[in-house]
Amino acid sequence: MTSCRLRRILCPVDASEPSAEAARQAIAFARWSGAHITALHVDALINLANPELLSRVVEQQREWMRLQFRAALDARINVDLVTRTGAPAQEIIAHAAELPADLIVIGTHGLGGFRHLVLGSVAEKVLRCAPCPVLTVPPRSVATARLPFEHVLCAIDFSDCSLAALEFAMTTALGSGASLTLAHVLEWPWEEPPPPNFDELPKAEATALRVYRQRREQDALARLHALAPEGLHDRCHVRVSHGRSYVEILRLAGEERADLIVLGVHGRNPVNLALFGSTTNQIVRRATCPVLTLRR
Questions:
Q1: pLDDT band per the 50, 70, 90 thresholds, residue 118
Q2: How many of the other CB atoms lie within 10 Å of CB of 97?
Q3: Mean of the per-residue pLDDT values for the chain?
Q4: DSSP-based three-state secondary structure for 149
């Protein structure tokens, strides 16, 4: 996506409560962005030889989707209801490319890993292979986010993909009226927290380590402040912490009562795909607010 302007949102749905929560989030994004929503139901099981019965089943699916997106229709948001049969992940990814979609919004079954996403392994494939950003949405039973958003947290590691994520986060905060936190985590070869016990180190080494940590933190803070958008200066904050990235991002999201976490994800080459299960996987697994992942 060359711009973070949203024109078309793809929301894969099924007859589950997490799917209904994803629909609510898709509608919220459409309200402030003016985007067109495509609701997509993919049925891998329909194989009916009777055309009349098949037509009736498809119409039942469409009626369920109309109920899910009634709020959007009432608000005169453009909504297309699409039903397909086939392999769900392939159909979702293919349809996202055909539209083309600027955002995919998909519900999860909450904590516990990709096997609990609403489409199971399908959602993991969508997250890995989608041609656009993906918003994963936990069910209302575990969700802590509010609509409209009040606070957006964007994780920044100063890579190109995290800067692209920042652009999306800024647009979302501006469009929804939310405040924005830019967060950077300093990881060390040892496990933190707690920080090292400087009293157990030789004096010269302890002094050097203290100075180095302070320098890294001050440099990160300066770079974050430089990234703060002009239009959000009065409601943009920066945070630097030490520890494992996913642990600290989730902790900061909880402290800030974030309604949305935005992450930049490195590309789709084999090495990056093998590493996909680390920070991004853990945050998507454990977050109690929606998580938007964006590749560049």
A1: very low
A2: 13
A3: 84
A4: coil
Distance CA 217, CA 221 (A): 6
- Residue 217 in this model has a pLDDT that exceeds 80: yes
pTM, full prediction: 0.88
Give the chain's domains with CATH numbers: 1-143 (3.40.50.620), 144-296 (3.40.50.620)
CA-CA distance, 248 to 226, in Å (whole number)? 22
For the chain, where are the E strands, in sequence order? 8-12, 36-43, 79-85, 103-107, 134-137, 151-155, 179-186, 236-242, 260-265, 291-295
User: What is the gyration radius of the CA atoms in the chain, in angstroms?
Assistant: 21
Long-range contacts of 84-87 (CB under 8 A, 24+ apart): 84/40, 84/41, 84/42, 84/43, 85/42, 85/43, 85/44, 85/46, 85/47, 86/42, 86/44, 87/44
The token pair at 20 is 């209904």
Q: Are 11 and 105 in contact (CB under 8 A)?
A: yes
